[in-house]
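Below: protein 1.
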Amino acid sequence: MDQIDRKILDILQQDASIRNVDLADRVGLAPSSCLRRVRILWQSGIITRSVILTDAEKMGRHVKAIVSVKLVDHGNDAREDWLESLTKERAVSQVYSVSGEMDAVVILTLANMKEFQELSQSLFASNSNVFQFVTQFVLEELKFDMSH
């Protein structure tokens, strides 16, 4: 991967709907060369998917919570069952297994506090494998950038 590939990725991460001819123009390549490079980035697994991001507020999701979770049992079955319960919930937008005092971090994007109360009960408080959970509510989003 060279500088042109990195520039292609930077542009696509900002707007994946850009037309190939415009992308090629911005990186200084012929459209056919640009398209070939993008295909190689897909085939090599560097590009893994193309998504549409929505405005959570406009979608009626006004509360964002970061929940740090400590589990009782780290065995595969208990952990996998709990993770499976998270994947079924619309409000769960991200889940990370983490090092340190806690075992996981769960990002929730919620309609309101009532939804948080219901989900915190079903996903965390009533789950026998959850030893402890600590919730922080996002007051202000200072940076949200999908590029890296």
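Below: protein 2.
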Amino acid sequence: MLKKKIHEDDDGRVVAPMNIEGMPWYNPHAKKSVQAEKATQDPLSKRETFRLIMQLYASALPILLVFIAAFAGLICFMVFVWLK
């Protein structure tokens, strides 16, 4: 019988659980990962949801401004260089 290897840097966390229903190795009694348990504990309040949405917009705004500036630059180039 093969001996299970023990690695010093293994802390037991599951990065991607492979216990999927329908697979031959599926174990319905297997322990859920900590992340899955944490995700199902408590939903966000309205205030927390609003803050997350505002942070999303704040992070997307600079990218949107770069695209708008590039499009405006392209239009200016077409109007002032190509049409003269």
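The helical segments are 34-39, 46-82.
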